[in-house]
Amino acid sequence: MATLTGRDTRSHTELPTFAVLTDQGRVRLVLAGSIDQLCMADLEEAVSETVRTGLPVEVDTRHVTFMDSAGIGALRTLAITSPHGVTFIEPAEVVRFLLHVTHLDATVEIVRKG
C-alpha cells in the first residue's frame, strides 16, 4: 500500500484489507478498514480479479470504517463491469450512504441477513 508520507498512521482496525473468495459458483469481495485513495491500486486489483472470475458477485463491506469517493468509484466499476448482478451483504452505514447518494443502490442488490 502506498502512502503520501511514507508511513501509515492508521490504527490496526482502520488499515484497509481486501479478499477475493471463490466458492460454489460465486465470488465474494470482502473489504474492511478505511478504504481511500491511498489503497486504490490494491482495491482496483481486487475488483479486476473479481470481475475476471465471471461469477456472480457478493460484496461484504460490514467492516468498512471509512470510504471516500475513490472507493465507491471502484465499486461502481465493479457494478457496471460484472457480467452478473452485484449483491452487497449488510453494507456498513458509510457504504449504504455512498450507495444511496451515488444512486448505485438502484443498480445493485442490498441484502440484510438475520
TrEMBL record:
SUPFAM superfamilies: SpoIIaa-like (SSF52091). Pfam families: STAS_2. It comes from the Bacteria. InterPro entries: MlaB-like_STAS (IPR058548), STAS_dom (IPR002645), STAS_dom_sf (IPR036513). Gene3D superfamilies: STAS domain. Residues 16-78 form the STAS domain. This is STAS domain-containing protein. It comes from Georgenia daeguensis.
